[in-house]
Design brief:
Chain lengths: 114, 111
Amino acid sequence: NAGVTQTPKFQVLKTGQSMTLQCAQDMNHNSMYWYRQDPGMGLRLIYYSASEGTTDKGEVPNGYNVSRLNKREFSLRLESAAPSQTSVYFCASRAGTGNKDEQFFGPGTRLTVL
Amino acid sequence: GEDVEQSLFLSVREGDSSVINCTYTDSSSTYLYWYKQEPGAGLQLLTYIFSNMDMKQDQRLTVLLNKKDKHLSLRIADTQTGDSAIYFCAEWTGGSYIPTFGRGTSLIVHP
């Protein structure tokens, strides 16, 4: 199993450009998440999908959109990138079936907006 | 709302014990987790404790939970330079889809 995969690993954008960050998991997990990580701020939830077909806003959704394409894939789109969106973006998934139900994280996408 | 607090930095000498502390506010937390993030990587689950437990030991790691004070700690015995990382405390309440993370504690291990 590959776990949670993210593409691309690195990206540089100019202000106003758009891009989509891709995330896929092969663990048959129900829930998927997008976080951003900034120095001193920890992880902040952008959007999450509790199950296939549903998406909900997290703590910092402005400037982002998401699509839960199917059970495996959850993409994050920046329609018009801004320098404030320079960050490291992590996708995560979780079985959502109870028990210890940990989150599994991807390796991250390092995004710089000039 | 729920909140999870951690100190931002901890510096220790190689071979000493490290203790990373965390406080949380949600008394209905079901699981409490410790994640480790190595430089340039994503988070990986290090250990976890169920809320009806007081202590959990796993090799060099000891997790202590004080439910009355809503305090969680992670002790790493015989800390090595390879333990240098950011450690995140997180709590999850059964029925919620969203775990709550602390801001992370950067552990720096000096030779």
